[in-house]
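Write out structure tokens for Ysc84 actin-binding domain-containing protein.
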Amino acid sequence: MKYRILGVCLALLVVSVLPADTFAASAAEIDAEVRETLIKFNEEVNGAEVFLNNAAGYLVFPRVIKLGIGIGGETGEGALRVNGKNVGYYRTSAGSFGLQLGAQAKSIVIVFMTKAALDKFRNSSGWKVGVDGSVALIDIGAGKSIDSQNVKDPVVGFVFGSKGLMYNLTLEGSKISKLDKS
């Protein structure tokens, strides 16, 4: 156990010291991961495809990694899709402090139900959940269904595919920043 904790501490140190570009994916890699994530999302949630088609736009973060030993951090890259096409690339990142130990990987889909909510996001220089916009997390288990009739919030989020030893269903405090992938 002592060596596992030491290993996680070293991993956190390495992640915090290296430049963010070290872990950056290319636009083509993000595009492929977004497609795979949307397939998985559509398989797990009945009505997801119709729901996403009625949205003004949506962010897809295929893999958000969280590590923590007292102090935690998470990051992931993804794409904003409007009318079924990727129109921009983004990074989500967040930090936390408190009782935590472990690592987790999860997928996140943030859906902008109105054009006004999407425009506010796109016009921001860095969008922070809970400050610049509120995201209502939707708890949908496998086999349940969603539609635009039972979701009334302008921005909704889905966290799914969680793997690892740390469990956290919050996006509060996450900062989403535009990336240049040209």
